[in-house]
Amino acid sequence: MLKETLKAEGYRTVIARDGLEGIKKLKEDMVSLVLTDLKLPKRDGMDVLRAAKEENPLMPVIVMTAFGSVETAVIAMKEGAFDFITKPFDTDHLLMLMKRALETQKLMTENMLLKEEFSAQLGIPRIIGKSEKIASVAQNIQKVAPSKTTVLILGESGTGKELFARAIHNLSPRREYPFVPINCAAIPRELLESELFGHEKGSFTGADFRKLGKFELADKGTIFLDEIGEMDIALQAKLLRVLQEEEIERIGGLKTIKIDVRIIAASNKDLEKAVSEKAFREDLFYRVSVFPVKIPPLRERTEDIPLLVDFFLNKYCRELKAPLKSISKETMEMLVNYSWKGNVRELENTIERAIILCDGKMITPEHVSLSPLPLEAGLKNLPMNGTLEDASKEALRIAETQRITKALKGTKGNKSRAAEVLQVSYKTLLTKIKEYHIE
Protein backbone atom coordinates (compact mmCIF):
# COMPACT_ATOMS: atom_id res chain seq x y z
CA MET A 1 0.00 0.00 0.00
CA LEU A 2 2.80 2.41 0.91
CA LYS A 3 4.71 1.58 -2.28
CA GLU A 4 1.72 2.51 -4.47
CA THR A 5 1.03 5.66 -2.44
CA LEU A 6 4.64 6.84 -2.64
CA LYS A 7 4.83 5.97 -6.36
CA ALA A 8 1.77 8.19 -6.97
CA GLU A 9 3.60 11.01 -5.16
CA GLY A 10 6.58 10.66 -7.52
CA TYR A 11 8.95 8.67 -5.28
CA ARG A 12 11.02 5.73 -6.53
CA THR A 13 10.77 2.98 -3.92
CA VAL A 14 13.09 0.11 -3.03
CA ILE A 15 11.31 -2.62 -1.06
CA ALA A 16 13.01 -5.02 1.39
CA ARG A 17 11.20 -7.96 3.04
CA ASP A 18 13.35 -8.06 6.18
CA GLY A 19 16.10 -6.16 7.99
CA LEU A 20 18.95 -8.14 6.46
CA GLU A 21 17.71 -7.49 2.92
CA GLY A 22 17.18 -3.82 3.81
CA ILE A 23 20.79 -3.41 4.97
CA LYS A 24 21.99 -5.11 1.76
CA LYS A 25 19.89 -2.82 -0.46
CA LEU A 26 21.21 0.26 1.35
CA LYS A 27 24.65 -0.63 0.01
CA GLU A 28 23.42 -1.49 -3.51
CA ASP A 29 20.93 1.32 -4.25
CA MET A 30 21.10 5.11 -4.17
CA VAL A 31 18.71 5.82 -1.28
CA SER A 32 17.62 9.30 -0.16
CA LEU A 33 15.39 8.33 2.78
CA VAL A 34 14.70 5.19 4.81
CA LEU A 35 11.26 4.22 6.14
CA THR A 36 11.54 1.16 8.36
CA ASP A 37 9.40 -0.77 10.80
CA LEU A 38 10.98 -1.35 14.19
CA LYS A 39 9.99 -5.04 14.41
CA LEU A 40 11.47 -6.97 11.46
CA PRO A 41 12.61 -10.54 10.77
CA LYS A 42 16.37 -11.40 10.78
CA ARG A 43 17.60 -7.88 11.71
CA ASP A 44 15.40 -5.28 13.44
CA GLY A 45 14.70 -1.67 12.53
CA MET A 46 17.41 -0.35 14.87
CA ASP A 47 20.00 -2.35 12.90
CA VAL A 48 18.64 -0.85 9.67
CA LEU A 49 18.84 2.63 11.23
CA ARG A 50 22.48 2.12 12.25
CA ALA A 51 23.38 0.72 8.80
CA ALA A 52 21.75 3.74 7.09
CA LYS A 53 23.70 6.18 9.28
CA GLU A 54 26.91 4.29 8.57
CA GLU A 55 26.20 4.52 4.83
CA ASN A 56 25.40 8.26 5.00
CA PRO A 57 25.32 10.17 8.31
CA LEU A 58 22.88 12.71 6.83
CA MET A 59 20.39 10.13 5.47
CA PRO A 60 17.00 10.69 7.17
CA VAL A 61 15.43 7.58 8.73
CA ILE A 62 11.79 7.45 9.84
CA VAL A 63 10.99 4.57 12.20
CA MET A 64 7.41 3.23 12.32
CA THR A 65 6.11 0.85 14.93
CA ALA A 66 2.99 -0.36 16.72
CA PHE A 67 4.98 -0.33 19.95
CA GLY A 68 5.13 3.41 20.40
CA SER A 69 6.61 3.64 23.85
CA VAL A 70 8.51 6.77 24.86
CA GLU A 71 11.57 4.65 25.69
CA THR A 72 11.74 3.16 22.21
CA ALA A 73 11.27 6.58 20.60
CA VAL A 74 14.09 8.06 22.70
CA ILE A 75 16.46 5.22 21.77
CA ALA A 76 15.67 5.60 18.05
CA MET A 77 16.15 9.39 18.17
CA LYS A 78 19.46 8.99 20.05
CA GLU A 79 20.62 6.60 17.33
CA GLY A 80 19.92 9.31 14.74
CA ALA A 81 16.34 8.69 13.54
CA PHE A 82 14.75 11.77 12.01
CA ASP A 83 11.37 10.96 13.56
CA PHE A 84 9.18 8.23 14.97
CA ILE A 85 5.64 7.38 13.81
CA THR A 86 3.20 5.04 15.55
CA LYS A 87 0.92 2.65 13.65
CA PRO A 88 -1.78 2.99 12.59
CA PHE A 89 -0.89 6.34 11.01
CA ASP A 90 -2.43 8.75 8.55
CA THR A 91 -0.73 8.53 5.12
CA ASP A 92 -0.87 12.30 4.64
CA HIS A 93 0.95 12.72 7.95
CA LEU A 94 3.67 10.32 6.79
CA LEU A 95 4.03 12.15 3.45
CA MET A 96 4.37 15.46 5.28
CA LEU A 97 6.99 13.91 7.58
CA MET A 98 8.96 12.55 4.61
CA LYS A 99 8.85 15.89 2.82
CA ARG A 100 10.13 17.67 5.92
CA ALA A 101 12.91 15.09 6.37
CA LEU A 102 14.12 15.51 2.78
CA GLU A 103 13.96 19.32 3.01
CA THR A 104 15.98 19.22 6.25
CA GLN A 105 18.55 16.96 4.60
CA LYS A 106 18.76 19.33 1.61
CA LEU A 107 19.38 22.33 3.88
CA MET A 108 22.11 20.45 5.73
CA THR A 109 23.87 19.27 2.58
CA GLU A 110 23.57 22.49 0.54
CA ASN A 111 26.39 24.21 2.39
CA MET A 112 28.15 21.34 4.14
CA LEU A 113 31.27 21.72 2.00
CA LEU A 114 31.47 25.31 3.14
CA LYS A 115 30.75 24.75 6.84
CA GLU A 116 33.41 23.46 9.18
CA GLU A 117 31.07 21.52 11.47
CA PHE A 118 29.64 19.43 8.61
CA SER A 119 32.98 18.80 6.91
CA ALA A 120 34.44 17.64 10.24
CA GLN A 121 31.42 15.42 10.94
CA LEU A 122 31.62 13.71 7.55
CA GLY A 123 35.40 13.67 7.31
CA ILE A 124 35.46 15.61 4.03
CA PRO A 125 37.88 18.36 2.97
CA ARG A 126 36.53 21.80 3.82
CA ILE A 127 36.09 24.26 0.96
CA ILE A 128 36.78 27.81 2.15
CA GLY A 129 34.56 30.48 0.62
CA LYS A 130 31.24 32.27 0.58
CA SER A 131 31.17 33.64 -2.99
CA GLU A 132 28.37 32.67 -5.38
CA LYS A 133 30.85 30.99 -7.73
CA ILE A 134 32.35 28.71 -5.10
CA ALA A 135 28.89 27.92 -3.65
CA SER A 136 27.74 26.92 -7.15
CA VAL A 137 30.73 24.57 -7.52
CA ALA A 138 29.95 23.03 -4.11
CA GLN A 139 26.32 22.41 -5.14
CA ASN A 140 27.39 20.74 -8.40
CA ILE A 141 29.81 18.50 -6.50
CA GLN A 142 27.07 17.41 -4.11
CA LYS A 143 24.79 16.56 -7.06
CA VAL A 144 27.31 14.42 -8.93
CA ALA A 145 29.06 12.79 -5.94
CA PRO A 146 26.57 9.94 -5.26
CA SER A 147 26.76 8.60 -8.84
CA LYS A 148 29.55 6.83 -10.73
CA THR A 149 29.61 9.55 -13.39
CA THR A 150 33.06 10.53 -14.68
CA VAL A 151 33.90 14.10 -13.65
CA LEU A 152 36.31 16.53 -15.35
CA ILE A 153 37.59 19.30 -13.07
CA LEU A 154 38.91 22.32 -14.94
CA GLY A 155 40.85 25.16 -13.40
CA GLU A 156 44.13 27.02 -13.32
CA SER A 157 47.08 25.71 -11.31
CA GLY A 158 46.64 26.30 -7.60
CA THR A 159 42.83 26.48 -7.58
CA GLY A 160 42.55 23.27 -5.52
CA LYS A 161 41.37 20.72 -8.08
CA GLU A 162 42.52 17.75 -5.97
CA LEU A 163 40.70 19.17 -2.94
CA PHE A 164 37.43 19.17 -4.91
CA ALA A 165 38.15 15.67 -6.27
CA ARG A 166 38.62 14.38 -2.70
CA ALA A 167 35.36 16.06 -1.69
CA ILE A 168 33.51 14.21 -4.50
CA HIS A 169 35.04 10.91 -3.36
CA ASN A 170 34.23 11.50 0.31
CA LEU A 171 30.61 12.38 -0.48
CA SER A 172 30.17 9.25 -2.61
CA PRO A 173 29.24 5.66 -1.66
CA ARG A 174 32.90 4.80 -2.45
CA ARG A 175 34.28 6.81 0.48
CA GLU A 176 35.21 3.63 2.41
CA TYR A 177 37.47 2.56 -0.49
CA PRO A 178 40.73 4.12 -1.73
CA PHE A 179 41.15 7.54 -3.31
CA VAL A 180 44.22 7.17 -5.54
CA PRO A 181 45.67 10.37 -7.07
CA ILE A 182 48.21 10.34 -9.88
CA ASN A 183 49.76 13.36 -11.59
CA CYS A 184 50.08 12.53 -15.29
CA ALA A 185 52.48 15.46 -15.81
CA ALA A 186 54.89 14.42 -13.03
CA ILE A 187 55.65 10.91 -14.34
CA PRO A 188 57.72 10.28 -17.49
CA ARG A 189 55.56 9.10 -20.38
CA GLU A 190 57.34 5.75 -20.66
CA LEU A 191 56.61 4.99 -16.96
CA LEU A 192 53.04 6.31 -16.75
CA GLU A 193 51.48 3.23 -18.38
CA SER A 194 53.13 0.98 -15.79
CA GLU A 195 51.97 3.30 -12.99
CA LEU A 196 48.39 3.19 -14.23
CA PHE A 197 47.98 -0.44 -15.27
CA GLY A 198 50.88 -2.27 -13.57
CA HIS A 199 53.24 -4.83 -15.14
CA GLU A 200 54.21 -8.49 -14.92
CA LYS A 201 57.64 -9.67 -13.85
CA GLY A 202 60.06 -9.71 -16.80
CA SER A 203 57.78 -7.69 -19.07
CA PHE A 204 60.60 -5.18 -19.72
CA THR A 205 64.15 -4.49 -18.56
CA GLY A 206 64.09 -3.71 -14.85
CA ALA A 207 60.71 -5.36 -14.23
CA ASP A 208 62.02 -7.67 -11.51
CA PHE A 209 58.64 -8.26 -9.89
CA ARG A 210 54.94 -7.99 -10.59
CA LYS A 211 53.60 -4.50 -9.90
CA LEU A 212 49.94 -3.58 -9.37
CA GLY A 213 48.87 -0.38 -11.13
CA LYS A 214 46.87 2.51 -9.71
CA PHE A 215 43.65 1.22 -11.29
CA GLU A 216 43.89 -2.08 -9.40
CA LEU A 217 44.79 -0.27 -6.18
CA ALA A 218 41.75 1.99 -6.62
CA ASP A 219 39.29 -0.90 -7.15
CA LYS A 220 35.82 0.01 -5.81
CA GLY A 221 37.18 3.48 -5.05
CA THR A 222 38.19 6.56 -7.07
CA ILE A 223 41.21 7.31 -9.23
CA PHE A 224 42.12 10.96 -9.75
CA LEU A 225 43.98 11.64 -13.01
CA ASP A 226 45.47 15.09 -12.49
CA GLU A 227 46.72 16.99 -15.56
CA ILE A 228 45.21 14.42 -17.91
CA GLY A 229 45.97 16.79 -20.82
CA GLU A 230 49.66 15.86 -20.48
CA MET A 231 49.00 12.18 -21.19
CA ASP A 232 50.64 10.71 -24.29
CA ILE A 233 48.20 10.25 -27.19
CA ALA A 234 48.95 6.50 -27.43
CA LEU A 235 48.23 6.00 -23.75
CA GLN A 236 44.99 7.96 -24.15
CA ALA A 237 43.72 5.17 -26.41
CA LYS A 238 44.37 2.58 -23.67
CA LEU A 239 42.65 4.76 -21.09
CA LEU A 240 39.63 5.08 -23.39
CA ARG A 241 39.37 1.28 -23.53
CA VAL A 242 39.46 1.10 -19.72
CA LEU A 243 36.59 3.59 -19.56
CA GLN A 244 34.56 1.66 -22.12
CA GLU A 245 35.23 -1.93 -21.01
CA GLU A 246 35.96 -1.42 -17.28
CA GLU A 247 38.91 -3.79 -17.51
CA ILE A 248 42.70 -3.51 -17.72
CA GLU A 249 45.70 -5.60 -18.74
CA ARG A 250 49.05 -5.31 -16.99
CA ILE A 251 52.06 -4.66 -19.26
CA GLY A 252 53.30 -8.07 -20.35
CA GLY A 253 50.17 -9.75 -18.98
CA LEU A 254 47.78 -12.03 -20.85
CA LYS A 255 44.91 -11.88 -18.38
CA THR A 256 42.15 -9.27 -18.49
CA ILE A 257 41.33 -7.86 -15.06
CA LYS A 258 37.86 -6.44 -14.35
CA ILE A 259 37.85 -3.25 -12.29
CA ASP A 260 35.22 -1.09 -10.63
CA VAL A 261 36.71 2.41 -10.45
CA ARG A 262 35.23 5.89 -10.60
CA ILE A 263 37.40 8.27 -12.64
CA ILE A 264 37.84 11.95 -11.83
CA ALA A 265 40.11 13.80 -14.24
CA ALA A 266 41.54 17.31 -13.99
CA SER A 267 43.32 19.72 -16.30
CA ASN A 268 44.58 23.29 -16.31
CA LYS A 269 44.67 23.14 -20.12
CA ASP A 270 41.92 24.00 -22.57
CA LEU A 271 41.17 20.40 -23.59
CA GLU A 272 38.79 21.44 -26.37
CA LYS A 273 41.62 23.43 -27.92
CA ALA A 274 43.93 20.42 -27.44
CA VAL A 275 41.37 18.28 -29.30
CA SER A 276 41.29 20.75 -32.22
CA GLU A 277 45.12 20.65 -32.28
CA LYS A 278 45.09 16.80 -32.32
CA ALA A 279 46.95 16.75 -28.97
CA PHE A 280 44.04 15.10 -27.14
CA ARG A 281 41.68 12.41 -28.42
CA GLU A 282 38.20 13.70 -29.13
CA ASP A 283 36.50 10.43 -28.10
CA LEU A 284 38.37 10.41 -24.77
CA PHE A 285 37.47 14.06 -24.18
CA TYR A 286 33.77 13.26 -24.45
CA ARG A 287 34.15 10.25 -22.14
CA VAL A 288 35.92 12.16 -19.36
CA SER A 289 33.89 15.37 -19.62
CA VAL A 290 30.48 13.83 -18.91
CA PHE A 291 30.16 16.21 -15.95
CA PRO A 292 32.59 19.16 -16.18
CA VAL A 293 33.21 21.27 -13.07
CA LYS A 294 35.04 24.59 -13.53
CA ILE A 295 36.89 25.92 -10.49
CA PRO A 296 37.03 29.74 -10.62
CA PRO A 297 40.44 31.42 -10.24
CA LEU A 298 40.98 33.36 -7.02
CA ARG A 299 40.85 36.73 -8.81
CA GLU A 300 37.21 35.97 -9.72
CA ARG A 301 36.20 35.35 -6.10
CA THR A 302 38.00 38.10 -4.23
CA GLU A 303 35.36 38.12 -1.44
CA ASP A 304 36.78 34.72 -0.38
CA ILE A 305 40.32 36.06 0.14
CA PRO A 306 39.79 37.36 3.74
CA LEU A 307 38.32 33.96 4.73
CA LEU A 308 41.25 32.11 3.17
CA VAL A 309 43.76 34.47 4.82
CA ASP A 310 42.20 33.82 8.26
CA PHE A 311 42.20 30.07 7.62
CA PHE A 312 45.89 30.01 6.59
CA LEU A 313 46.88 32.32 9.46
CA ASN A 314 45.37 29.88 11.97
CA LYS A 315 46.77 26.85 10.17
CA TYR A 316 50.40 28.01 9.90
CA CYS A 317 50.60 29.73 13.28
CA ARG A 318 49.60 26.35 14.72
CA GLU A 319 51.97 24.33 12.51
CA LEU A 320 54.92 26.70 13.03
CA LYS A 321 54.15 26.94 16.77
CA ALA A 322 54.03 30.72 16.42
CA PRO A 323 51.74 33.04 18.44
CA LEU A 324 48.47 33.73 16.60
CA LYS A 325 49.02 36.80 14.41
CA SER A 326 46.56 39.30 12.99
CA ILE A 327 46.78 41.10 9.67
CA SER A 328 46.64 44.87 9.19
CA LYS A 329 43.84 46.49 7.20
CA GLU A 330 46.34 47.87 4.66
CA THR A 331 47.86 44.39 4.15
CA MET A 332 44.44 42.78 3.70
CA GLU A 333 43.51 45.40 1.08
CA MET A 334 46.76 44.65 -0.72
CA LEU A 335 46.02 40.92 -0.73
CA VAL A 336 42.41 41.40 -1.91
CA ASN A 337 43.45 43.72 -4.76
CA TYR A 338 46.32 41.52 -5.96
CA SER A 339 45.75 39.32 -9.02
CA TRP A 340 46.80 35.84 -7.88
CA LYS A 341 48.36 34.02 -10.84
CA GLY A 342 49.13 31.03 -8.60
CA ASN A 343 45.64 31.20 -7.06
CA VAL A 344 44.98 29.69 -3.60
CA ARG A 345 48.34 27.90 -3.52
CA GLU A 346 50.19 31.19 -4.07
CA LEU A 347 48.12 32.91 -1.37
CA GLU A 348 48.82 30.04 1.05
CA ASN A 349 52.58 30.25 0.41
CA THR A 350 52.49 34.04 0.86
CA ILE A 351 50.78 33.77 4.27
CA GLU A 352 53.15 31.03 5.48
CA ARG A 353 56.16 33.15 4.46
CA ALA A 354 54.69 36.27 6.13
CA ILE A 355 54.21 34.43 9.43
CA ILE A 356 57.88 33.36 9.39
CA LEU A 357 59.07 36.92 8.60
CA CYS A 358 56.82 38.62 11.16
CA ASP A 359 58.36 38.79 14.66
CA GLY A 360 55.48 40.79 16.12
CA LYS A 361 51.76 40.15 16.45
CA MET A 362 50.59 41.94 13.29
CA ILE A 363 51.47 41.19 9.67
CA THR A 364 52.10 44.40 7.73
CA PRO A 365 52.91 45.01 4.02
CA GLU A 366 56.66 44.71 4.65
CA HIS A 367 56.13 41.02 5.58
CA VAL A 368 54.30 40.26 2.33
CA SER A 369 56.34 39.83 -0.84
CA LEU A 370 54.29 39.74 -4.03
CA SER A 371 55.31 39.40 -7.66
CA PRO A 372 54.70 42.40 -9.91
CA LEU A 373 51.03 43.03 -10.54
CA PRO A 374 49.74 41.98 -14.00
CA LEU A 375 49.59 45.61 -15.13
CA GLU A 376 53.26 46.14 -14.30
CA ALA A 377 54.16 42.78 -15.84
CA GLY A 378 52.13 43.64 -18.92
CA LEU A 379 53.88 46.99 -19.33
CA LYS A 380 57.27 45.28 -19.01
CA ASN A 381 56.27 42.97 -21.87
CA LEU A 382 55.35 45.78 -24.22
CA PRO A 383 56.94 45.30 -27.66
CA MET A 384 60.20 47.26 -27.94
CA ASN A 385 59.86 47.73 -31.67
CA GLY A 386 57.30 49.87 -33.48
CA THR A 387 56.38 53.49 -32.83
CA LEU A 388 55.85 55.29 -29.54
CA GLU A 389 52.19 55.62 -30.51
CA ASP A 390 51.91 51.80 -30.82
CA ALA A 391 53.43 51.35 -27.34
CA SER A 392 51.07 53.97 -25.90
CA LYS A 393 48.01 52.25 -27.40
CA GLU A 394 49.07 48.86 -25.99
CA ALA A 395 49.74 50.32 -22.52
CA LEU A 396 46.33 52.03 -22.61
CA ARG A 397 44.65 48.76 -23.63
CA ILE A 398 46.27 46.87 -20.71
CA ALA A 399 45.37 49.58 -18.17
CA GLU A 400 41.78 50.07 -19.38
CA THR A 401 41.11 46.32 -19.62
CA GLN A 402 42.18 45.78 -16.00
CA ARG A 403 40.30 48.82 -14.68
CA ILE A 404 37.07 47.88 -16.49
CA THR A 405 37.37 44.24 -15.35
CA LYS A 406 37.84 45.31 -11.73
CA ALA A 407 34.86 47.70 -11.93
CA LEU A 408 32.61 44.97 -13.38
CA LYS A 409 33.66 42.55 -10.63
CA GLY A 410 32.97 45.20 -8.01
CA THR A 411 29.46 45.76 -9.36
CA LYS A 412 28.82 42.01 -9.95
CA GLY A 413 28.51 42.58 -13.70
CA ASN A 414 26.16 45.60 -13.51
CA LYS A 415 27.38 47.65 -16.49
CA SER A 416 25.33 50.77 -15.67
CA ARG A 417 26.82 50.92 -12.17
CA ALA A 418 30.31 50.16 -13.54
CA ALA A 419 29.98 53.06 -16.00
CA GLU A 420 29.16 55.37 -13.05
CA VAL A 421 32.19 54.10 -11.10
CA LEU A 422 34.46 54.65 -14.13
CA GLN A 423 32.78 58.03 -14.88
CA VAL A 424 32.13 57.21 -18.53
CA SER A 425 28.91 56.86 -20.50
CA TYR A 426 27.18 53.47 -20.71
CA LYS A 427 27.74 53.46 -24.50
CA THR A 428 31.49 54.13 -24.08
CA LEU A 429 31.78 51.24 -21.62
CA LEU A 430 29.99 48.84 -23.99
CA THR A 431 32.30 49.91 -26.82
CA LYS A 432 35.40 49.29 -24.68
CA ILE A 433 34.12 45.89 -23.52
CA LYS A 434 33.59 44.82 -27.13
CA GLU A 435 36.89 46.32 -28.34
CA TYR A 436 38.98 44.63 -25.64
CA HIS A 437 36.98 41.34 -25.70
CA ILE A 438 36.24 41.56 -21.96
CA GLU A 439 34.04 38.72 -20.69
The strand count comes to 14
* Main sheet strand line-up: 5-8-11-4-12
Shape descriptor reads globular
SS element count, helices = 20
Can you tell me the residue ranges where pLDDT is under 50 for at least 5 consecutive residues? 116-122
SS class: alpha/beta
Average predicted confidence as pLDDT = 85
Strand content: 5-15%
| Biggest beta sheet attributes | 5 strands, parallel
Instruction: Report how far the terminal alpha carbons are from each other.
Output: 56 Å
Radius of gyration: 27 Å
Structural overview:
The chain is of the alpha/beta class. 49% of the residues lie in helices and 11% in strands. The protein is built from 20 helices and 14 strands. The strands form five sheets. It has a five-stranded parallel beta sheet. The longest helix is centred in the C-terminal third of the chain and has 23 residues, at 388-410. It is globular and about 90 Å long.
